[in-house]
Structure prediction request, 141 residues.
Amino acid sequence: MSRAKAFQEMMGDLGRLNEHLSSDPIASHLGLKVAEIGRGRVVAEFPYKRELTRPGGMINGGMVCTAIDYTAGMAVLTVNDKDDQVTAELKVNFLEPLKDGPFRVEAQVIRKGRTLVVVEAKVYDSNARLCAIALGTWYLI
Prediction:
């Protein structure tokens, strides 16, 4: 079974999906959990953890990018009618430091073509303050 089809089978069961994420070493390190999922949309959350911070106590930008990549990638998986996918491009604008967790990543598919999918993702802190916005492209395999 393809990775996309396996993921789509888990979509209706957040417990099973989050269990799968907890077995992924990177998602587990982030503490990433899916809060909502639907066709073309995923909302995930991750906590404030000292292991994710840079000097100054804010979440490291690479950790934010990783949370965005995972969440937006899952949004792509919900519409992927092929076997797999890879991130082709990801641009992130950091607007505010991420200090007040937990954090919420909202990813929405903007356009799906035959081989490329464009996704917008936004990251909010626990005060609903927009801290980062991203636009990415995934290549369907």
Notes: The mean pLDDT is 97. DSSP finds four helices and six strands in the chain. The two ends are 14 Å apart (CA to CA).
